[in-house]
């Protein structure tokens, strides 16, 4: 008798899919129907596996995705741990705003981690960076200023079966942080996957390892984001404080440019909205209108 069971794809290895279910990790192959549908199962997908008494396991269905992010891609990401460096490379509010806009567009939550703050500990430069990041805390983002606090609190933040991945500028320390988190993590899924490989040569792109009650993708994420595909009239919805306060604008579809009675422009003038946020909004808006990523961001 055929049995079907639902689970999460935690790795793709040489054409095999490891699916974590309430019966453990099940290795399976994908049915040809996915090729016919031009559908590619991804790590993070909620999938249905068909089992039989001959030990032949097949993916037979991919449940609807809520998103797909990253390079390599991970499906159904709940939260991104965004690594922004204090120095080497230099801290950049513009880059931070680009990432936050991109993930808001993708409907993914963001937790911000300031890396390399120890390099400039006790300096006026670090004090200024932290003051700027306090604004992002006020508008709803969780911010970690040091690795010790992050590692202490992160396991409790990851909810049951939630999928997290990393993102951030090149050189910000994503890989270093990832290696530390993976070393500290409960490596049950990794050990199972290793046992299933049985020593044969394998290739894989990305894997989920268990952390807290959920998963973290063992990829350092990506460092560039394309924003020009966002609909220009929707851009303000992805700046959370703009979205919240635009209900007080005179015009319902206010674009916060030259319209009279714009609440957002008033809040910028009154320093209730960080001026750099508004400037970055205008830059991204122009990028969308030009329909291309700026050369310096490539």
TrEMBL record:
Obligatory cofactor(s): Zn(2+)
One Pfam family matching this protein: RsgA_GTPase
UniProt domain CP-type G: residue ranges: 66-225
GO CC annotation terms, alphabetical: cytoplasm
InterPro entries: G_CP_dom, NA-bd_OB-fold, P-loop_NTPase, Ribosome_biogen_GTPase_RsgA, RsgA_GTPase_dom, RsgA_N
SUPFAM superfamilies for this protein: Nucleic acid-binding proteins, P-loop containing nucleoside triphosphate hydrolases
UniProt-annotated binding residues for Zn(2+): 249, 254, 256, 262
Subcellular location, record wording: Cytoplasm
The enzyme's E.C. designation: 3.6.1.-
Ranges that cross the membrane: none
Swiss-Prot/TrEMBL keywords: Cytoplasm, GTP-binding, Hydrolase, Metal-binding, Nucleotide-binding, Ribosome biogenesis, RNA-binding, rRNA-binding, Zinc
Free-text remark on how the cofactor is bound: Binds 1 zinc ion per subunit.
Organism domain of life: Bacteria
Any one GO molecular function term: GTPase activity
Protein's GO biological process: ribosomal small subunit biogenesis
Binding positions for GTP per the UniProt entry: 115-118, 168-176
Domain EngC GTPase: 75-223
Principal subcellular localization: cytoplasm
Described function: One of several proteins that assist in the late maturation steps of the functional core of the 30S ribosomal subunit. Helps release RbfA from mature subunits. May play a role in the assembly of ribosomal proteins into the subunit. Circularly permuted GTPase that catalyzes slow GTP hydrolysis, GTPase activity is stimulated by the 30S ribosomal subunit.
Record note on quaternary structure: Monomer. Associates with 30S ribosomal subunit, binds 16S rRNA.
Family: Belongs to the TRAFAC class YlqF/YawG GTPase family. RsgA subfamily.
Name of protein: Small ribosomal subunit biogenesis GTPase RsgA
């Amino acid at each position: 008798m055929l049995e079907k069971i639902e689970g999460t794809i935690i790795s793709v290895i040489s054409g095999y899919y490891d699916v974590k279910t309430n019966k453990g990790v099940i290795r399976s192959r994908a049915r040809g129907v996915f090729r016919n549908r031009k559908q590619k199962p991804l790590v993070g997908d909620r999938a249905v596996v068909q089992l039989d008494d001959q030990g032949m396991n097949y993916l037979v269905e991919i449940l609807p995705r809520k998103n797909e992010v990253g390079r390599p891609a991970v499906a159904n990401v709940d939260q991104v741990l965004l690594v922004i460096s204090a120095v080497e490379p230099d801290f950049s509010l513009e880059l931070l705003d680009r990432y936050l806009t991109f993930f808001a567009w993708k409907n993914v939550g963001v937790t911000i981690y300031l890396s390399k703050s120890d390099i400039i500990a006790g300096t006026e430069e670090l004090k200024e960076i932290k003051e700027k990041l306090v604004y992002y805390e006020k508008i709803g983002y969780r911010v970690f200023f040091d690795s010790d606090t992050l590692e202490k609190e992160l396991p409790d933040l990851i909810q049951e079966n939630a999928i997290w991945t990393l993102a951030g500028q090149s050189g910000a320390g994503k890989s270093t942080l990832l290696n530390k988190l993976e070393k500290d993590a409960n490596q049950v899924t990794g050990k199972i996957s290793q046992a299933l490989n049985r020593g044969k040569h394998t290739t894989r792109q990305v894997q989920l390892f268990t952390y807290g009650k959920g998963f973290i993708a063992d990829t350092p994420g990506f460092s560039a984001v394309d924003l020009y595909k966002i609909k220009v009239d929707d851009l303000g919805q992805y700046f959370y404080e703009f979205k919240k306060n635009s209900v007080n604008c005179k015009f319902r579809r206010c674009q916060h440019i030259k319209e009279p009675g714009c609440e957002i422009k008033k809040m910028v003038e009154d320093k209730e909205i960080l001026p750099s946020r508004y400037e970055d909004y205008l830059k991204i808006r122009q990028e969308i209108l030009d329909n291309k990523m700026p050369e310096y961001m490539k």
